[in-house]
Amino acid sequence: MSHLSEIMEYNRQFVDEKQYEQYLTGKFPDKKLVIITCMDTRLVELLPKAMNLKNGDVKIIKIAGAIVSHPFGSVMRSILVALYELSADEVIVVGHLDCGMAALNADHMIQEIRNRGVSEEVLSTLDNSGIKLDSWLQGFSNIKEGVTGTVNLIKKHPLLPADVPVHGMIIDPNSGQLEIVVDGYEKISQK
Question: Do 64 and 85 fall within a single domain?
């Protein structure tokens, strides 16, 4: 049985038994937070538990490395939507120890792209269009710098309200222990 078939079979039972009722909530986050975190599988249940979050409390955006790489990309748009349209009023960037983005090597990934059948013509077209895969696919060497860089990119965005605190944290994916890297309240009080 395929993963898709397993999902659909389970979903029919989930809906028939009305198991969804325990998750019913509104679209506005009760704790008025938007969290940007990594897509790491270890954080799916651990991060909400470690932060005392339940369904309906926050907007969570999951991306590789918790790194916002473009100030006008879809992640930043999602942050702004959460702030302006969905009642969020704080942002927390949560990176984690032992992150795969720290070890990401652009050259290796580009070779894997080739190995999976993407042609040299496509790679050349991207390069000639100004898309530099070697920098776009590069990871980071220091998780604190990665989190701080993303906090700074968000905080300096021209459409971000000046009174929105942007925090940075690191979570240990083994224990759930959180460390504050950037206290966004301090940045607000300094202005």
Answer: yes
